[in-house]
Amino acid sequence: MKHQQILVKLAAPFLVRALDEDLARWVGWQMLRSPEESRADTDVVRPILARWRCLLDADDTAPDTRHRGWVALAVLLHRYGLTDEAVTAHALTSIDALNRDVVLSDAFARQSPTIKRFLTTPPSALTRRPRRPSALTLLRPGDVISIQVAAKFYTAFVRQVAASRAYPVIEFYSGSFDRPPTLGQLSGRPAALDRGHARFGVVGLNYLPDPANQVLAVAAQHQQPPLGNEPEPGEGLYTMTDIIRLQRDITRLSATSTA
């Protein structure tokens, strides 16, 4: 049994691709850390779960989608030499649920005992970094997006698309919301920090709709970015990050913002 054989049987190529891209990028970055830094599995799993909880634990997500997501996550972690007891337990339960509800093929049902044994076998450690996913964003200037971190929603405006459409540069409006805001709530709202300090180039912010359900569309071709002064000459235009580290960046931005 190979990882790809299981993933194909899930019949969810868009979800699997997006999750695989997140993990490959994040695992690769972790492997570049110095030997003195911790490389525990939770360094990878916890931020990935924080991003994908919006799909894996959401009440408004179709049950079969949640189940496929848990299985895909367990399989991909195993592919990248990682394991997480809670994720594996969810995946095993999800396999039973998918079979009970006859969601997938007969081949998946027949091979489920083998798949379960495979997922509970210790994975082989990676000997080289995963291949870096290609970078191409579908977002466009003027898009307004809401990003959920924990129970709060933070809203950003797409300022530009950089590096031949590789990633968007977004700027956050001030404040957070209990649900995705309306354009009326954003009208006249300042940036979270002035002079470009709330702007980020986000690698991996590729899809809208977002397969992880963390990023939601608020508006397209919007004409009113967050209000504030432009960066001074010699100051950086924006901070580079990626879709996983962005969660930490948002938390820090929220803590330092006085708006």
How does this structure look, described?
The protein has eight helices and six strands. It has helices spanning 3-9, 13-31, 41-56, 63-79, 85-100, 106-119, 183-186, 245-256, and strands at 144-149, 152-162, 167-172, 199-203, 215-219, 239-242. Strands 5-1-2-3-4-6 form a six-stranded mixed beta sheet. Helix 2 (13-31) runs parallel beside helix 4, helix 4 crosses helix 5 and helix 5 packs antiparallel against helix 6. The mean pLDDT is 94.
**How would the global form be characterised?**
elongated
User: What is the average per-residue confidence, as pLDDT, rounded to a whole number?
Assistant: 94
> In this structure, how is the largest beta sheet organized?
6 strands, mixed
SS-derived structural category? alpha+beta
Helix content: 40-55%
E-strand count: 6
Could you outline the blueprint of secondary structure elements for this entry?
Elements: H1 3-9, H2 13-31, H3 41-56, H4 63-79, H5 85-100, H6 106-119, E1 144-149, E2 152-162, E3 167-172, H7 183-186, E4 199-203, E5 215-219, E6 239-242, H8 245-256
Parallel strand pairs: 4-6
Antiparallel strand pairs: 1-2, 1-5, 2-3, 3-4
Helix pairs in contact: 2-3, 2-4, 4-5, 5-6
